Fold this protein.
Amino acid sequence: MKLRVLICVLICMGCKAVNSQGEITTTAKTEATAVKEMDPLATEASAYVGSKVCAGCHPENYEGWKTTLHSKMIQETNQPGALVADFGKQDISTQFSLNDVDLLVGGRFKQRFMKKIGDDYYMLPIQWNVATKEWVRYFPRDEWWVSQYPEDWQKRPTSKLCDGCHSTSLIGRGGKTPAEWNIACEACHGPGAGHVVAEASLGPGQGAGAKIINPAKLPFDRANDVCFQCHLAGRPPEGSEYPDRDYPVGYLPGDDLTKYKNPAPSLGMEGPESHEFFEDGISKKNRNQGNDFIRSKMYSRGIRCFDCHNPHSGKYTAMVYKPGNSLCLTCHSANSPAGPPERSISEHTHHKADSPGSQCIECHMPRIGKHAVKLESRSHCFDFDFVSPERTILYDHPNACNRCHQDKTTEWALRALKNWGGKGKWKWQRALQELREQVSTEERG
């Protein structure tokens, strides 16, 4: 059934949806019409209706999503609270003014700026770093796709490099114009026109689950793929029709992502340090959470991204279900099958219970990667071995201990761990021996 027929059905039925109280509400007919105008040949499988239509029946999820950073990735300059950059600061930002900016990108760690030229957008070559409150030049030279584009920011359209993961529908459509900016409902649940029609034709609640993807009901690998479409560094597969795109063109929630994206080099393998990975294959930048996660015990035991992260709420940092240790201790409390053998937090961490050293994420998810500046992005390997001082010795990347104890040496951290005893005693002893051999070699050299 073509989209025009679907739209006619919706219009004839009054374009109605049902809210959580069972009341009939008028949905945004113009949202569906806009999709039709953008892609008049679209079929039911690719017909997007927009988050405002979804809100008609799912107001709680919609309002919760509006509080997340997913809903605020792309904003207009006049939206309240959207602009965090200081255009009054007299430095490289004076090359451009706010009048040159059509859309803002991000704002938690960094903010970038899109300018519309013709029918596409381009990223202005400046960036505001939130933590340091400074302007820096933005012109990628280390990304894998750089060789396929000219040395001119006006020749690098965001529709090929950024928008696929900053909007909804561009991945499946492979065009220039998304159905909706930001990571909205249909970015994770797939195009919704068929679902809306089923609800309208079968009656309130009768079409629930029809022609829509619920990631929670997908097989384990397909469920994580919904998040990995943007949170796993990769490349277009060999023979791709879109070899210069930095997102998996054609992928829709529920698909097998491996048909649209190959994992980035060094995935779980040792090799030369790169822009994306340390020598041991651990990620050194943001948006590579999936690359680390698939190496973890959590992944091997069937944990899904959204078992910890709630895409329908921005109440807590990083869209998690609970704050701080309370989230981790849901599964890893003392005496639980997945918990540590020690009887208390402080006994397990060797730190006071109320200190940063007893926060699970500071040892198991330390900030070792880069967002705008180094040491902002949290590791998603979870196993302490991946972020231990031993890794600093062997692969020269930050470790959890010295992220807090910055006035101490790596050797100090290793000796402290060795003195704790337990199952790591001999492991850290080997690392200390490796450190001594490195120092001896340097002295001879």
